[in-house]
Amino acid sequence: MDMNLLQSTLDIVFRGHLLYLAPFLFLMMVILFADRLIELITTSMQRSSSRRRY
Q: Taking the model in full, what pTM does it have?
């Protein structure tokens, strides 16, 4: 009974609002992982520049 209530609630919420929630969720994901992406880019640039010198 509780699973049916939960499933129906999720269906109602996400059926109509997922179109509006998807860009917001994507933006939040980008904000959360932006620092990791910047760190990855800078470390790869430093590694590639140090490899070119030798």
A: 0.43
